[in-house]
Amino acid sequence: MQNVKNSFTPASYVKILSFLHLGILATPLILAVYFYFQIQDTHLSFSDSDDMFLAIVPIIAVGGVFLSDFLFRKIVKSIPSGMGLKEKLARFQTACIISYALLEGAALFSIVIFYNTQNFAYLLIGLFLLFYLYLKRPTKDKVEHQLNLQGAQKAQFGRVNQPLE
């Protein structure tokens, strides 16, 4: 039997993070499409004074965006510059997942409220959040820039198929 060594490369890291991002993005998107086709009579209203969600959903959406970005930046800034690349990438992945989850939660909330109220405005807010989440998709260049990789770590991350130690 051959001994297979796990190799964690920069390319595999970006691929895994991309799959996580895609999975987090796909769930509310599929739900939005499903709900859209389940509802017969949708309407678009921004002035229904009886609908308390007209205040709640935008607050949660904006709060989700700001909290997502705030926590992401805070976690990434807390990564010590002397830490090894593999550990930096693990913390960066944690920051990304937290950021994605906050946006996903706000989008899911908007989409569920759309299903309950049949007000198309909530679906639009949810789709905006999903578009913003899509824009946060991870790439090699984004990871390198956001982690501010320099010198040997930048060179090591640039060798995409070489295992990280």
From TrEMBL:
* Domain of life (superkingdom): Bacteria
Transmembrane helix as a keyword? yes
Q: What is the protein's name according to its record? A: MFS transporter
Q: Where are the transmembrane segments?
A: 12-37, 52-72, 92-114, 120-135
UniProt keyword annotations, A-Z: Membrane, Transmembrane, Transmembrane helix
